[in-house]
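Sharing a chain and its predicted structure for anyone who wants a worked example. Both blocks are below, sequence first, tokens second.
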Amino acid sequence: MLVLGLDPGTITTGYGLLTGDSSDAELIKCGAIRAPAKHPIEHRLWHIHTEVSDLVKREKPDVVAIEKPFVVRAPRQAALAVGEARAVIMIAAVGAGIPVFQYPPAKVKQVVAGYGAGDKEQVCRMVEMTLAIDLSAHPLDVSDAIAVALCHTREAALLEMSAE
């Protein structure tokens, strides 16, 4: 299975492409889509949509896994903007015929770090340990995206086992 994990943001959207299943996942590529911070939101959203569409066309993932927003602490305007970024990402995936799975941050943290309230640094360390990689050159949005992809591989394995 090829899973594209995404951590949406209106300025930085992290992505991580994994292959394999929950027991032998391997990172294929990762990075950050950066929208110009000084541009109006509609231009940043278009940039995110275009970049994700290109990524999906180029890499042909089987599924897209995306983090749901955590809005309790976020200011309302920021939460709405992240929701818009999520929407353009989902449209890019669905437009390419790729199913989208969504996971709340607490679920991702629980699956990857073993603790649903861990911070971004803890998630990053666990992703690095799990995949034997170094993410120090990347923003934490990238490790969050990879964590979402890892979460999906593990959740998909559980669903497959329960269907048998």
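Comments welcome. DSSP finds five helices and five strands in the chain.
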